[in-house]
Every structure is written in structure tokens, then in C-alpha cells.
Design brief:
The protein contains eleven helices and seven strands. The chain is of the alpha/beta class. β1, α3 and β2 form a beta-alpha-beta unit. It starts with 8 loop residues before the first helix and ends with a strand. The relative contact order is 0.16. The structure holds benzoic acid. The site of benzoic acid (BEZ) has 8 residues, from loops.
Length: 255
């Protein structure tokens, strides 16, 4: 959400439907925190994307508002009959404090985590819960290494273009505590992820912030090289690409 990138919902649906599918487990974790029901609970879906999980939260009884930096995604979410607004996750505000903040596959796009956590803490009632999952240290490590190697070789400084933040669990715990949260649970786990449209489809959706300012021809050349470099590590003998996802999933309570 720190990127001024407006996602294309159709591409996202084709190349990244698995993001919300896997996110159902995070919804389940949130529901558990409220004893099995979200009825009457007020919350925020931080980084609601195309609204598929926001709708599920609403169907489970929550009064939920989706926030996303992408106007196209917000429009898509509203089209599902769910309230949604364009917002920067580093600095969002709510009219009155909420019972929960939920976030799936968004926090790694927000490169100033302390600002995000301060906004989440301000949005929650005392005792309110923050349940989230995002990329942890080691997430897409092979993919990232290949992108950085090829960009640097092409004279495009990769580190300053990198749009992602993938923290170690201990480091993120300290950030949560500094912002006034008590960590209830956190897991850091590998989740090898089959890619429905292969590495090229994944890169075309997720690596845009690295390359979006380059001419189409340069982008295509770099994406081809990155894909070739990754094939021996991430494509199986039947041709299925499996991305090296590593997730950080946690429940934290605002003091
Ligand atoms: C993820 O959801 O883990 C992810 C998103 C963008 C880049 C890499 C990974």
C-alpha cells in the first residue's frame, strides 16, 4: 500500500487468486479470537484487495470496512456490497475505535512498519485484536535474489526499488510491543505455493513496482531472464512452478 500502484483486478484474479484462498485461514484465526462469531464486532480489513475476504468477514457478522491503497481494488470491493475506502496503511484513521484489525498479505507492502503499527493501535479499542499474516524473513528469497541480480546487472539499483518488507519474527514482535501490543501468538512457516500462471504470471503481477517505469521491451527481457534463472530451483519436473513463500502469522492485543 505504500506503492502508488493501482492493481489490475482482472490480472490479480488470474495470477493471484490463491492469496485470498490461503487467507481464509487468517479469517478463521480471527473468528477464534471472538469465540467463534464475529456477530456485532466492528473491524477493519487493512489491505482488502478485491474484497473477497472482506465479504467473508461481513457474511460472518462483522461490521467491516475495507481499506486499500488501490482505487481499482476498492471499487471491486464495493461492487461486492462491502464498505471500502482508499487509504494509505501507514496513516489511516477511523471515526471510532474498532474491535479488530484484520490484514492478509498486505503488511509486506508497507515499508514503514512502525507507522503502520501506530495507526493500527490508534484504530483499536483497548483489548482490541490485530490478526494478520504476511511475508516473513525468507519469503520468496529465491525469487527476490533473482530479481535483484538481474536488475543490478541491468544497472537498475534493486535495493532502492524493492517494494517489500519481510521481517524476522523476533524483530516484528519488538515492533508490536513498542506500539503497545501484547503478542498472543506468532508463527513463521514455509508455505510452498503453486503458481497458477507460472513464474512469468506471478512476476507480471507482483514485480511491477520493481520495473513498472521501464520500457515494455526492457521489462520483458528482464522478466524472461529472471524466469530462466529460477526454473531449476522453483519449477518441478512436470513444469509446475512452486514459489518459496514464507509466512508470518500472528495475533496481538492492544493494551
Ligand atoms: C506474499 O504475499 O507473500 C508476497 C507478496 C508480494 C511479493 C512477494 C510475496
Amino acid at each position: 500500500m505504500s506503492q502508488p500502484y493501482d492493481w489490475n483486478p482482472a490480472d490479480y484474479d488470474k495470477n493471484a487468486r490463491f492469496v485470498s484462498t490461503y487467507g481464509n485461514a487468517v479469517v478463521d484465526l480471527l473468528v477464534e479470537q471472538f469465540g467463534g462469531s464475529l456477530q456485532g464486532k466492528v473491524g477493519i480489513d487493512l489491505g482488502c484487495g478485491d474484497g473477497v475476504l472482506t465479504l467473508r468477514l461481513q457474511e460472518l457478522g462483522a461490521d467491516v470496512l475495507g481499506l486499500d491503497a488501490s482505487p481499482s481494488m476498492v471499487e471491486k470491493t464495493r461492487g461486492l456490497g462491502v464498505r471500502a475506502e482508499v487509504a494509505d496503511g501507514h496513516h489511516f484513521t477511523v471515526d471510532s475505535p474498532v474491535d479488530f484489525v484484520f490484514s492478509n498479505a498486505t503488511l509486506h507492502w508497507l515499508k514503514r512498519p512502525d507507522e503502520v503499527l501506530d495507526s493500527v493501535a490508534r484504530a483499536l479499542k483497548p483489548g482490541g485484536v490485530f490478526v494478520a499474516e504476511f511475508g516473513g524473513l525468507g519469503n520468496v528469497a529465491a525469487i527476490m535474489t533473482a530479481i535483484h541480480a538481474e536488475l543490478d546487472r541491468a544497472g537498475l539499483p534493486s535495493l532502492e526499488r524493492c517494494p517489500w518488507y519481510f521481517p524476522a519474527p523476533g524483530v516484528y514482535q519488538k515492533r508490536l510491543e513498542r506500539a503497545g501490543f501484547t503478542l498472543q501468538q506468532m508463527i513463521h512457516f514455509p508455505r510452498p505455493t503453486p503458481l497458477p500462471t507460472g513464474m512469468r504470471g506471478w512476476l507480471e503481477t507482483f514485480a511491477v513496482p520493481y520495473l513498472g517505469d521501464q520500457p515494455k521491451e526492457t521489462q520483458d527481457q528482464l522478466l524472461d531472464r529472471i524466469t530462466d534463472l529460477l526454473a531449476p530451483a522453483l519449477r518441478d519436473e512436470e513444469g509446475q512452478w512452486i514459489a518459496d513463500y514464507v509466512r508470518l502469522r500472528f495475533v496481538a492485543v492492544r493494551g
